[in-house]
Design a protein that fits this description.
Strand content: under 5%
Radius of gyration: 15 Å
Distance between the termini: 15 Å
Number of helices: 2
Number of domains: 1
Helix content: 55-70%
Largest sheet: none
Order of helices and strands: HH
Number of strands: 0
Shape: elongated
């Protein structure tokens, strides 16, 4: 089963990848600078942004992750391709 993918699919996926990259970098920075309040605030803001972006993506295109990290509509969406890492 193949989804009809539109331009918004790729835009949202790119936005998620950019947010994930920034969160990983901030995590590494905060590991060595745990008292940097500005960096911590930025991390929390981006984490909230990422959560909202992922929720919007999943509501429109289906789950990003498995093992209980994402909900699925009926019928079970996880078997639909492509998976996010395949595009």
């Amino acid at each position: 089963m193949n989804k009809q993918l539109d331009e918004n699919y790729y835009k949202k996926l790119l936005e998620l990848q950019q947010l994930d990259f920034a969160l990983v970098e901030l995590t590494l920075y905060l590991d060595t600078h745990p008292n940097d309040l500005q960096a911590l605030q930025q991390f929390n803001q981006l984490a909230q942004q990422r959560q909202q972006c992922a929720l919007q993506f999943e509501m429109q295109y289906g789950p990003l992750m498995q093992f209980g990290h994402s909900y699925s509509k009926y019928p079970w969406q996880w078997v639909e391709c492509p998976w996010p890492w395949q595009v």
